[in-house]
Design brief:
Elements (H helix, E strand, L loop, with lengths): L7 H18 L6 E5 L14 E6 L12 E3 L12 E7 L1 H4 L3 H11 E12 L11 H4 L9 H10 L2 E9 L8 H6 L2 H9 L6 E8 L31
Parallel strand pairs: 1-2, 1-4, 2-3, 4-5
Antiparallel strand pairs: 5-7, 6-7
Length: about 240
């Protein structure tokens, strides 16, 4: 995966994913955010949370020094329950030996109403129509389609807020051909949206029975009690 990201199609995918993260995470507020895996992508650069970490199982692919780097596994995150406001999974589930357990671990560390962002390859991608796809694609585990991922998230009480697909150009190794086919990224969402090679899904952790408290200035002012007077008729 790390070597493939340095190829023309790898840089093409990485640019789309970076743009999606910048747009989706710029207005996500909180205190603690985590990117789990894929250090080549700076998924949290547009986010303004004061505490941001990058968790990896190795330093492979680390092209520059970045603050807040943790060496850990996705199946055992070094965070307490309900302690993170945001978790980004850039192809983390596809590279995990147990994607179900990884997703459960993310649910554990997220606060109620916390967000998870999942980036993954689409199994019904246009790239799959090429014979040499397996030779030119990155080495990942089982591909998890966005509809399948949506079911997994719902089982963990997540609510999908948005899902975007992109990268409609064929997986050519030539940078020149990728540039010539740029028109496909404009036509793809209109004519064949389900054939985007990569997806970016945002989901919110919901907790049943929980009621969020509104700010004090939003609460209706308590009505002051008024004295009620009754007129009595004199008895003759």
């Amino acid at each position: 995966m790390h070597d493939w990201l340095n190829t023309p199609p790898g840089r093409y995918v990485q640019a789309w994913e970076q743009a999606q993260c910048d747009q989706a995470l710029a207005d996500v507020f909180g205190f603690h955010a985590l990117q789990l895996g894929l250090p080549e992508l700076d998924a949290l650069r547009a986010n303004r949370m004061p505490h941001r970490w990058l968790a990896c199982d190795s330093l492979e692919g680390m092209q520059r020094q970045r603050p807040g780097v943790l060496l850990t596994e996705s199946l055992a995150l070094p965070f307490s329950d309900a302690s993170l406001d945001l978790v980004v999974l850039p192809h983390t589930l596809e590279l995990s030996r147990d994607p179900h357990a990884t997703l459960r671990e993310v649910e554990r560390v997220l606060v109620p109403e916390g967000r998870v962002v999942v980036l993954g390859f689409n199994p019904t991608r246009l790239w799959g129509l090429r014979r040499r796809w397996r030779e030119e694609a990155p080495e990942v585990g089982e591909l998890i389609g966005h509809w399948r991922l949506r079911d997994w998230l719902q089982l963990l009480s997540f609510e999908v807020a948005s899902n975007s697909l992109g990268c409609y150009r064929p997986v050519w190794q030539s940078q020149a051909w990728l540039q010539r086919l740029a028109w496909m990224d404009r036509a793809g969402p209109r004519w064949c949206p389900i054939l985007g090679a990569v997806y970016c899904m945002v989901a919110i952790k919901r907790v049943r029975g929980m009621r969020l408290l509104e700010p004090a200035w939003k609460r209706p002012a308590a009505r002051s009690a008024r004295a009620v007077t009754t007129a009595s008729k004199e008895m003759e």
